[in-house]
Design a protein that fits this description.
- The protein is built from two helices and four strands, in the order E-E-H-E-H-E.
- The protein is α+β, with helices and mostly antiparallel strands and 93 residues long.
- It has a four-stranded antiparallel sheet with strand order 3-1-2-4.
- The longest helix has 10 residues, at 67-76.
- The protein starts with 11 loop residues before the first strand and ends in an 11-residue tail after the last strand.
Length: 93
């Protein structure tokens, strides 16, 4: 696979926070933000607020997501959805 000279040197993305769903974030490519995100997903997420722009080429890790998985999902699907961390179920005993 060859890389075209016009390809960005480092993948940048915009991270949006879902206003209606706690700790739910949507990562999308900076150059093509929401065009590949399925409409039903956008409707489920509701209002989105941009929280940051990340240079994924310069980063080695992310706090709550595997950076290689994020990069791959952005390339293949056009977005990465970060859901809230799982919490341990309360012990009923």
């Amino acid at each position: 696979m060859s890389v075209s000279p016009s390809a960005p040197a480092s993948p940048r993305c915009i991270v949006y926070k879902s206003i209606g769903l706690a700790e739910t974030y949507l990562y999308v490519p900076e150059q093509d933000p929401l065009s590949r995100v399925p409409r039903p997903l956008l409707e489920r997420l509701g209002t989105l607020a941009p929280v940051m722009t990340l240079d994924l080429g310069a980063r080695r890790r992310l706090a709550r997501a595997d950076i290689e998985r994020v990069r791959r999902q952005l390339r293949e699907a056009g977005y990465y959805l970060q859901l809230p961390p799982r919490t341990a179920a309360a012990d009923p005993s």
